[in-house]
């Protein structure tokens, strides 16, 4: 669970810095984890309401919402890499959870779909097109980005292309993402961070 107070401090710091960088649009956001089968996020609503950007994603290591979620969601996702049948079962569970999330929260985009836990990209992209939620193509991880671009194109969903920078020198390294979109002919007007 993120510390609510930290987000408020960051908001204040960013507001104080903004006048020094008039050429930049500074946004405060968070990547929240889906912590239950019904798509709950590990951030309180009052914090989500204060964010400029909400990202939701599936991550293997977090505290589950309930013992049932530990048993039927967290642990099977950790074990899914060892069993094809479990992986397919969790693909269904995870896709449903993410679709619940995007219907319950104002999610701007879903981080690295199908990287840390299996999801059905077509089903997810179809739902994302309906809620105007984008899918992330980040250049910092190796995963099925081509599958994401193709699913988004098929269903009319938007994409976010970013660097997932964990170090300052990685910020803005988008070339690999741009090349992929060019190669697959993905329309630039569906890339939401190209619209600012
Ligand atoms: Zn993530």
What features would you describe in this structure?
The chain is α/β, with parallel strands linked by helices. It has a single domain (31-194), classed as TIM Barrel. Helix content is 43%, strand content 11%. It has 7 helices and 5 strands; from the N terminus they run αβαβααβαβαβα. It has a 5-stranded parallel β-sheet with strand order 1-2-3-4-5, with helices on one face. The chain is globular. The two termini are 30 Å apart. The mean pLDDT is 92. The chain binds zinc ion. Zinc ion is lined by residues 31, 57, 59, 111-112.
**Tertiary shape:** globular
**The CATH superfamily title:** Metal-dependent hydrolases
Distance between the termini: 30 Å
Low-confidence stretches: none
Overall CATH class = Alpha Beta
At the third CATH level, what is the topology name? TIM Barrel
Helix content: 40-55%
- How many distinct helices? 7
């Amino acid at each position: 669970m993120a510390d609510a107070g930290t987000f408020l401090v960051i908001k204040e710091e960013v507001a104080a810095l903004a006048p020094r960088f008039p050429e930049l649009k500074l946004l405060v956001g968070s990547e929240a984890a889906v912590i239950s089968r019904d798509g709950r996020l590990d951030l309180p609503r009052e914090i989500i309401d204060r964010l400029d950007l909400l990202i939701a994603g599936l991550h293997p290591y977090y505290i589950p919402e309930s013992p049932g979620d530990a048993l039927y969601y967290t642990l099977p996702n950790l074990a899914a890499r060892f069993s094809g049948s479990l992986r397919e079962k969790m693909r269904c569970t995870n896709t449903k959870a993410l679709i619940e999330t995007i219907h319950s929260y104002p999610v701007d985009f879903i981080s690295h779909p199908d990287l840390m836990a299996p999801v059905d990209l077509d089903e997810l992209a179809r739902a994302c097109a309906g809620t105007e939620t984008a899918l992330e193509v980040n250049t910092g991880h190796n995963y099925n980005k081509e599958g994401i671009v193709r699913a988004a194109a098929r269903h009319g969903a938007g994409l976010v292309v970013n660097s997932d920078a964990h170090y300052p020198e990685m910020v803005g390294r988008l070339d690999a993402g741009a090349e992929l979109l060019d190669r697959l002919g993905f329309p630039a007007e569906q890339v939401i961070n190209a619209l600012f």
